[in-house]
Design goal:
transferase; six-stranded mixed β-sheet; alpha+beta; disordered C terminus; two-component regulatory system; Helix Hairpins; Heat Shock Protein 90; phosphorelay sensor kinase activity; about 45% helix; 13 strands
């Protein structure tokens, strides 16, 4: 840790001085609390600002003192050169001791030494200097230089030059220079200390204000960690770093909250699904077990009673088989296995579905119509798994047959549209971008419709809306869930519209408009719609499947 505080260029030398075995010991001497990385960011920023300011002030003061000393020494050198000729002509009485006259003329810290040709000191001006001047052991002419004071005082500045056969040395003390430097150093220290204290207080305030958004984020993060996932970080400004960080955190929190909510909802649906599936399987298993016990106890002797018992067992086993088959199909769709994709004609699928429905329930009215009333029925080709798409159409028609009265009319429409936002409809499946061409299979009825409180859940697994959609209808609540899963696997969506069903006039599907290979004539009833059919509540399921690039949708 100590080496980290030392510049990189010096570290190799430090490593060479400190023994290798002592480095871990030095690292352990510093408590973890006092290590730089363990300090709060606020403290580190304030200390860094103060440290940088102190280093800057130290360099500035040092440079100022050096420059000032050089300037003052230059002035002393000028003083040494100026009185040279006058000092050379000093009278003899000055050498006798007229110190006051010399000091008044040249200053208290000025001395003149006279040497003969052999370098011996002849006289000193003033004769009794106080304080005494320096001792020049070997005076030589040249530029000014500095010598130490023999008494440990301030150094002296010396200028030696020739005067006739001898030498003259002008000597000036640097005591005033040292005094000015000392006073300036004290002033610099006091001012620098005050500046550092003031700067530290201002830096602490500025850092505190600057880190306030981060402090709020920290508090918000603590509340979120405590379980309050609805909390959001206050955004200071979109152009600031804390503002951008807060906005990014809010987006992350929104996604996290949505993921947590979706996960909780998924777990709840899974628990409900397992409970419903267990309940659905338990009922036929209980029936089979009851009939088996009845037979074992002799309650079903050979004959009609035995036949009825075996039929009931077969029916319950068939129900279990269908339920398990639907569950397996949903599991396969959840695994997103590749589909057997090929061109599929939705008109042919709808026609075959209507034909099968009329064969199962001959007395029901099931119609085929174009999605656009003014357009004729034409093939609509989409890429997909034909078996799965046929299952979608069959489930929708079977759902309408099972949950509408016998006199209700069911209409299957086929066409093309440009995908738009579904609006208030209940939607399941993938997202289709606006303007995407899509093939449509629409199944509407004039029955009682879906209650508004149940509509948002019709595509959930093992969900049945109301008493009218009970186990007696033969459904387990998986038909529409299978529809949604298959449509999602094809990249499409299915919509439920509970608005009143549209009445289809008898001329909407003229016999010549139906392709004979797609729809037998008997599947297109020609009877008129009852006058009140348009006012029926009904339910409309619309499946949108992405078209191939060759199909052009009719604008709707």
């Amino acid at each position: 840790m100590i080496l980290r505080l030392i510049p990189r260029v010096v570290r190799p030398a430090i490593r060479g001085v400190i023994p290798g075995g002592m480095r871990p010991v030095i690292g352990r001497v510093i408590p973890p609390v006092m290590r730089w990385g363990a300090w709060p960011v606020r403290r580190r920023l304030v200390l860094a600002i103060i440290g940088l300011a102190a280093a800057g002030l130290l360099l500035a003061n040092a440079a100022g003192l050096v420059l000032l000393r050089g300037h003052l020494v230059d002035r002393v050198d000028d003083q040494l050169r100026a009185p040279g000729e006058a000092a050379a002509r000093l009278p003899a009485d000055a050498a006798a001791g007229d110190r006051q006259a010399v000091e008044q003329r040249f200053g208290r810290h000025f001395r003149v030494y006279y040497y003969d040709a052999r370098g011996r000191l002849v006289r000193t001006v003033p004769a009794d200097p106080d304080p005494p001047g320096p001792v020049l052991a070997d005076p030589r002419p040249g530029p000014p230089y500095t010598v130490d004071d023999p008494g440990g005082g301030a150094p002296w500045r010396v200028l030696v030059y020739r005067d006739g056969a001898g030498l003259v040395a002008n000597v000036a003390s640097l005591e005033e220079v040292e005094s000015v430097q000392g006073r300036l150093l004290l002033i610099d220290a006091a001012v620098s200390g005050f500046v550092l204290l003031l700067l530290g207080a201002l830096a602490a305030l500025v850092v505190r204000l600057g880190l306030r958004p981060l402090t709020r984020m920290e508090a918000t993060a603590g509340q979120i960690a405590a379980g309050d996932f609805a909390r959001r970080v206050p955004v200071a400004g979109p152009r600031t770093e804390p503002g951008r960080l807060g906005a990014a955190m809010n987006v992350m929190l929104d996604r996290l909250e949505a993921e947590i909510a979706a996960r909780a909802a998924s777990e709840e649906r899974m628990r409900q699904f397992l409970a419903d599936a267990s309940h659905e399987l338990r009922t036929p298993l209980t029936s089979v077990r009851g009939f088996a016990e009845l037979y074992r106890r002799g309650g079903a002797p050979p004959g009609r009673a035995m036949d009825e018992t075996m039929r009931r067992i077969e029916d319950e086993a068939t129900r279990m088989s269908l339920l398990v088959g639907d569950l397996l199909l949903l599991a396969e769709l959840d695994e997103e296995r590749p589909l057997d994709t090929r061109p599929v004609d939705l008109l042919e699928v709808a026609a075959d579905t209507i034909r099968d429905a009329r064969a199962r329930v001959p007395g029901r009215r099931v119609r085929l119509s174009a999605l656009d009333r003014e357009a004729a029925l034409e093939p609509v080709v989409v890429p997909g798994d034909e078996a799965r798409i046929r299952q979608v159409a069959a489930n929708l028609v079977a759902n309408a047959l099972a949950h509408t009265p016998p006199d209700a009319e069911i209409t299957v429409r086929v066409g093309t549209v440009l995908a738009r936002r579904p609006g208030a409809a209940v939607v399941a499946g993938a997202d289709l971008p606006d303007g995407r061409p899509a093939g449509v299979i629409e199944v509407s009825d004039t029955g009682p419709g879906v209650p508004p409180e149940h509509a948002p859940r019709v595509f959930e697994r093992l969900y049945r809306a109301g008493r009218g959609r009970s186990r007696a209808d033969g459904g387990a609540g998986l038909g529409l869930a299978i529809v949604a899963a298959i449509v999602r696997a094809h990249g499409g969506r299915v919509e439920l519209d509970t608005r009143p069903a549209r009445a289809v006039p008898p001329e909407a599907v003229p016999p010549e408009a139906v392709p004979p290979q797609a729809m037998p004539p008997q599947a297109v009833p020609s009877q008129a719609v009852p006058p009140d059919a348009g006012a029926a509540r009904g339910a409309t399921f619309r499946v949108l499947l992405p078209l191939t690039g060759d199909s052009e949708p009719a604008p709707r």
